[in-house]
Amino acid sequence: MYKAVIFDLDGTLLNTLTDLYNSVNHALRTFGFPERTIDEVRRFIGNGVKKLMERSTPVGTDEETNAECLDVFREHYLLHMADNTAPYEGVNELIEKLRENGIKTAVVSNKLHPAVVGLCKDYFPGIECAIGVSVEEERKPNPVNVLKVLDVFGITADECIYVGDSEVDVQTAHNASLKCIGVTWGFRDEKELIENGADFIAHNTDEVLKQVSGC
CA spacing 20 to 30 A to 122: which of 10, 58, 79, 184? Predict the structure, then answer.
């Protein structure tokens, strides 16, 4: 049994796709750019909002315009990040069962830090540590924020496991010397998770609980 679990947020605990899609297209409309489909936005998610907007704007968009578009996205998203967002089925029960088993829980996300803290406070008050990106250098797959959680909890890498839905999560976990459970209900499919080296695959929250605690 592990002493702690670190979760990704978007696509793992929360289905945030519609709100991200709406804010991306609000920013694109502001600059007169063509809008993106929800499937395109799904594929663009995973490397933080800066990369999300760079992928969403037309090819050849200059750096200054991309930065301005990102600012519009951020302003809109911080106001509308909970319009359609909701936890995936079984997630709240999973967090509670982990707590009952004495297993600490944390979130490390590539979302902006204020958004991560706000969403966890609203949806997952049982999460003990929530960290988002404050500066670009912290963005996953850099393991710096995962290592911060280990330090806060006073545990080693082999006492913790990471749960996420994308290749970026797998890379982040391995960069921090953690095993990774890839979940199939998020923004990537099982094939991609396996191809990118996920140590375990979970199709539902019961399978996550079993892998983490043996229950």
Answer: 184
* Percent helix, strand and coil across the chain, each to the nearest 5: 50, 15, 35
Structure tokens at 2: 């592990």
Do 59 and 99 belong to one domain?
no
Mean pLDDT across 136-143:
92
Domain coverage including residue 201: 4-15+86-213
Within 107-166, residue ranges assigned H as helices are: 113-123, 144-153
d(CA 111, CA 81): 11
The pTM (predicted TM-score) of the whole model is 0.90
Q: Are 187 and 17 in contact (CB under 8 A)?
A: yes
Question: What confidence tens digit (pLDDT) does each residue in 13-63 have?
Answer: 999 999 999 999 999 999 999 999 999 999 999 888 899 999 999 999 999
Are 105 and 128 contacting, i.e. CB atoms less than 8 angstroms apart?
yes
Distances (CA, A) of 194 to 6, 54, 97, 200, 201: 19, 27, 27, 8, 8
- The answer to whether residues 103 and 204 belong to one domain is yes
